[in-house]
Amino acid sequence: MNPETATIGCGLDTVEISRVEKLLRESTPEDLEKLFTRRELEDAGAGAGRAASLAARFAAKEACCKLFPRETSLGFITPADFGIRRDSYGAPQVEPSPDARAVLDRHRVARLRVSLTHSTTDASAIAWAERQETVVPWSGKVLYHLLPWRRGVVLGNLRRVFGDVLPEIEIRKLAMAYYGHLAQFLREFITRPFLPASKRKAGVRVENMESPIRAHDQGKGILLLTGHFGNWEVATVEGIGQFPKYRDLFHFVRRPLKPAWLNAFVTHRFRRSGFGTLDKRGSLESILELLSQGAIIVYVFDQHAGTRDGIPVDFLGHPANTFKSLAVLALNTGAPVIPASCWREPDGTHVLRFEHPLPAIECEDTDEAIRQNTRSYNAALERMLLRHPEQWIWMHRRWKVRPVKKTVNQSAKA
């Protein structure tokens, strides 16, 4: 990485120690935990230096927020989203919350570093951000330049999401890295069936399988929220195959692929691996029946939904028509919604990760409940997508903005 572009910003903040001393005198433990993590409170100790230690940590939190003024002003992040701890050598380390991690990922920040100091009256901290390096394989460069299929769509989507935080050269590197991911995806699709079973199994790691196992014990089935991340077929088939007790419970809600022979081929591979498939249209009764039997219904949620099936909800900062059926099912059945994603590590290992269930949002207005829960699902997709943005389907037209048709009266006024 070029050392001149490795650091992309810095923030500085100072806090009066007397303000923290007053806070410690007047606040309850519950109030303090809204500002500091339990570990921060424990690390600060209970002696004379407690206030100065916490003041320095709060200055570091504020300095981190100053690196992202837009997101801070909009309330996407607060100082409480940045935990400050010390490693085994005593150096301060930043632990971002999931919301803060999503902001860092969108800015392509690999890590935040902080330096803390204090005098007898004030505590100060400086924070700086280090750029995440985008690795572009040679295959990505070749495909980007020589086979630019939908290159305009890819670049347009990347600019829509990253255009206000990344320079154009970084956006093009992301595009080339995406083409490299496609090349690797196709190689794996063709060659993986010929690999020994032991090698296929060793090439996939499953993280946090405890989450769907605990949720499944509730007896309401599971709604699995996912998207086109990494090599979803390899990670899903091989990952779930490591848990034979649950494999036959998975049913994918999906659109038929084109051409028909490709759809037949993919469907055959899924069914041979023990996964059922359901059409996005006309499968409501089947889904309800399967959920009542404890099935796991997999929703691939990152595609454009037509006006009949979707509602406009924010996705990565822009309105996108999103399927409302998942929220309707979750609210009516009580089935937990669990986000899941997969990605490919630099060494070629595939990771299938399950997150914790998303809390259901209840509203008196049913339409508003559907909208808020759907937005919550999109936010979960954003966090998963931004971890490895080069491994998402940027050639899909996710944001289809249709011009508003003017009425006769509106045209006359214009």
Number of domains: 3
The proportion of residues in beta strands is 15-25%
Mean pLDDT: 90
Number of helices: 19
Low-confidence stretches: 1-5, 403-414
Computed CA radius of gyration, to the nearest angstrom: 24 Å
Main sheet overview = 7 strands, mixed
Query: What's the overall geometry?
Result: globular
Give the topology, please.
Elements: H1 3-6, E1 7-16, H2 17-26, H3 29-32, H4 38-43, H5 50-66, H6 69-73, E2 82-86, E3 92-96, H7 98-106, E4 109-118, E5 122-131, H8 138-146, H9 151-162, H10 168-191, H11 197-202, E6 204-207, H12 210-216, E7 222-226, H13 232-240, H14 244-247, E8 250-254, H15 260-272, E9 276-279, H16 284-292, E10 296-300, E11 310-315, E12 318-323, H17 325-333, E13 337-344, E14 350-354, H18 366-387, H19 408-413
Helix pairs in contact: 2-5, 7-18, 8-10, 9-10, 17-18
